[in-house]
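User: These chains co-purify. Model them together.
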Amino acid sequence: MLNYDIVVVGGGPAGMAAAIKAKECGVDSILILERAETLGGILEQCIHTGFGLQYFGEQLSGPEYADRFIEQVNALEIEYKTDTMVLDITEDKTVYAVNKKDGMLEIKAKSVILAMGCRERPRGALNIAGTRASGIMTAGTAQKYVNIDGYMPGKKVVILGSGDIGLIMARRMTLEGAKVECVCELMPYSSGLTRNIVQCLEDFDIPLYLSTTVIDIHGKDRVTGVTIASVDENRKPIPGSERYIECDTLLLSVGLIPENELTKNIGIGLDRVTNGAVVDEYRQTDHEGIFACGNVLHVHDLVDFVTQESQIAGEGAAKYVKGEKSEPEYIFAKGIGAVRYIVPQKINIKNDGDVKLFFRVGSTFKNATVKVSYNGGEIISRKRPRLAPGEMENVTIKNSMLREFSEGGTIEITVEA
Amino acid sequence: MIYDAAIIGAGVSGAFIARELSRYDIKIALLEKCNDPATGTSKANSGIVHSGFDAVPGTLKAKLNVKGTALMPKVCKELNVPFKQLGSLLAAFSDEEIKTLEMLKERGEKNGVEGLEIYDSKKLHELEPMVNESAVAALWAPSAGIVCPYELTIAATENAVENGAEFIRNFKVTSIEHDGSVFTVSSGENSVKAKYVINAAGVYCDEIAAMIGDNSIHTIVRKGEYMLCDKSAGKTVGRTIFQCPTKMGKGVLVTQTVDGNLLIGPSATDIDEKDNTDTTSDTLSAILEKAKKTVPTLTTRDVITSFAGLRAHLECDDFIIEKSSANDKFINVAGIESPGLSSAPAIGLYVADMIVSECGAKEKENFNPERKAPVRFRNMTNEERKALVEKNPAYGRIICRCETVTEGEIIDAIRAPAGARDVDGVKRRTRAGMGRCQGGFCGSKVVELLAKELGTEINEITKFGGDSKIIYERTK
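Assistant: Joint model of the two components:
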């Protein structure tokens, strides 16, 4: 049995930032457990740039962004084990893990930070009809084949879903010599970042078909083509709009799902919209001393926000370990109408800092107003030129405001067109 | 070399015939057109071991179903394949359907099915609270169970191979000649010679029989589509829940699988092509609607994958297991649709007996009925895991995170008798890639392990043989 103050599950950007912050806050005994061969998480296969603009104020590639944190982990002498899979976490914070070198590990932690990231939605979740030929994979899997393993998964590609990974892979496959026929998006808008639509599709003349989906996959052994069709406002294919597109590969970029199997096994309560844990402003779950941050908590569009959020969780875990947290008095945050969710879902009003609320809208807006109310009374109103489902928003609740609130109150965020 | 028996088709029937014949001192070849056993009907079906009340008394289906189901617990124990005898409930939604239950109960009793009982609505809902309130009664069949059909087929094949049978993959039979005493079964340039040929070719039985001039078999290809739900929905029902049968088959069922998922299906559509396992969105929605009659809370949200399987239906609505009228050394095993999986152990015995009684082969002294249990890391206690990894560190590296499958288990699957040669083969043997991410994370690692173990390049590895390569070439 090993003992650590903090065990961090996942050594991607979230886990590393949380561990570094906790160390800086004065906790020495920290262990990061990472299932891949190296620290860095999914950033290692994201060799394109665009990372770090918010946090470092410069353009970095994924591995460069990760390296800055890996260097800090090493400089601060934070312990980590790679190629190590966490199998189970008990309510009393005992972590069971396994690797080739140590065998089965049983680790007792005072605090646990959950930073397992997310996975891509597979084909089955969409129930696309057709054959089960080879050549259908998620965009992230294709990204690993191309960028890490050095293999091309196809030459003539259709991409379903205009999430950021799909857009990035449209460009990547093109640069590697493949022909990307089109990107199809079920919704009337793309869920990807605007800059990715411009830099990855428009710059390469790759068509983006909105309100369009793949309704059939052809080919016995290997994919030979797909049938696409336009969809109506209920997302049902419109008869007569079908088109056959010849291709050997179908890449899917149709959403990300936080990997909360361990979280669920502990019995931690999840938010039905984010599919991540319900947390307070330090990203503490409903189980005291267990924190969650990064894409396992809610899917982020920028790693910079993951870093910031994870630092908050790292600080929270450090405070918890050092016994610095007082009995909380919570108020609750609730998204109304177009505001699909807010993280954190609850705030301790005895907190001595400002609290940033992150939220996501369900449809696009131009020149809209974000309104925040407390128990029905408006407290903040902010103009926004543009709001989109693909871009996370935030508002800050000043500490001076928090002081005015009382336990059990409700903060609501709405958007007015 | 001249084999005593060549079996065409490594589905569940062929595998069990091979296993039963391997008890005897004879030479056996199990010929499979694909890259692995269990790639046709035996891969994609409901996985139900039926109690045996459906078939008309006196038919082969009735006899072999009841006998096969009785053998199943022992066979699964020997082959170390999970079998859960959960029982089945056939739900009735009207007074007329209650009459069907009574008829089927009587039929089952004539077939020798034990323990059949009609439960009222109260008892049904006590057992299965998620079943539609409008269900008025159910036929309870305690001997029914669930088994993984491809795991059973692979295990029987492995066991046959361990007992001396030869498994020959990628052998698509193109012609069969008989010189009066020996058959030459050819697959393009390759051929094997055998004294007996057993035609267990599933939906292709008619084409194989026609190769010796036997045109008596006409297979109707019936497609069934299914939806598989995540393990989190696996406990929605505790048993297999049927609806009343129709002339197209047993209708849409809702069941647990042995691996803890929830399975919904099948549809039943007669089609012309023998390799059309496409799923169609209309049919999938129709299955869900029909299944909602049984369990109203079912949603597509839990669905992780869908698939289709083909079954070989015959006009006579019974199995045909007999010597061909064209050649009495050629045995047809045709029309093996439901309850074919349940009947498989009995079909194996039945066919082996036909051959052995004629050629007078002797039983081997060293036949080993047991197939060694594969390592299943996910099912072990932490103490067992600790000991295992200490012995072999390859079991300490998790490759498939959704299903907790280790590198060691994947290597075992490749090295096994008649082992995996492609990604789907590894998946069927270990469940790597069968979880909620459907191979998104582990797919490339499985490809790497296959290439390393088989001593080939990564871009030679296929999903399921043939031209189903996963990747094309090195990047520039």
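Chain A has a mean pLDDT of 95.
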